[in-house]
Design brief:
heterodimer; A: 113 residues; mainly beta; four-stranded antiparallel sheet; 0% helix; B: 110 residues; five-stranded antiparallel sheet
């Protein structure tokens, strides 16, 4: 089954404790992206990757890191999480082309206390 | 700065009614996508429109891309409870960056 998987689905952590949210896709997509979804603000892009070893900032990259060492995986790293990073996070992937139609993962709800 | 404004933000209607959701911008987009998101899940792509003036139909859903490629609309005919969800439009600003609207939350009751 074609899918994007994220782990963990739920995470409660404390300020400053490094964490990684994993994302994996099995559709051989070149393009992968991370978004955060907040009430009233919609989905905002954090980082994206056009292919292996190629990443770039989205609209809200501060406080986040990513890496793309393999085509299927695109982990999101929070080196020192803060409460304002409490949010619902989505990973998405697509073929690189005209429209970048996104396939989304199920989401990771992160709470930073 | 929110580049894509959706209206209305909330819509509660009864089964069988028709509705239209709007997605507006001052920017030109190469393409525009519509997604539907249900609680606890990620958004799911409904349609992509690419050409100005383009109209696409998906069963009871009709999508239109504005002639100038700055706006789009989603019309649902005879809404059903299964149409309930958050509808998101997303514009392709550059070759790789999507901008999402804030969404329209639709509730269809019996």
């Amino acid at each position: 089954e074609a899918q994007v998987t994220q782990n963990p689905r739920y995470l409660i952590t404390v300020t400053g404790k490094k964490l990684t949210v994993t994302c994996s896709q099995n559709m051989n997509h070149e393009y992968m992206s991370w978004y955060r979804q907040d009430p009233g603000l919609g989905l905002r892009q954090i980082y994206y990757s056009m292919n292996v070893e190629v990443t770039d900032k989205g609209d809200v990259p501060e406080g986040y890191k990513v890496s793309r060492k393999e085509k299927r995986n695109f982990p999101l790293i929070l080196e020192s999480p803060s409460p304002n990073q409490t949010s619902l996070y989505f990973c998405a992937s697509s073929f690189a082309g005209i429209s970048y139609e996104q396939y989304f993962g199920p989401g990771t709800r992160l709470t930073v206390t | 700065t929110q580049l894509l404004e959706q209206s209305p933000q909330f819509l509660s209607i009864q089964e069988g009614e028709n509705l239209t959701v709007y997605c507006n911008s001052s920017s030109v987009f190469s393409s525009l996508q519509w997604y539907r998101q249900e609680p606890g899940e990620g958004p799911v792509l409904l349609v992509t429109v690419v050409t100005g003036g383009e109209v696409k139909k998906l069963k009871r859903l009709t999508f239109q891309f504005g002639d100038a490629r700055k706006d789009s609309s989603l019309h649902i005919t005879a809404a059903q409870p299964g149409d309930t969800g958050l509808y998101l439009c997303a514009g392709d600003r550059t070759a790789s960056k999507l901008t999402f609207g804030t969404g329209t939350r639709l509730q269809v009751t019996l």
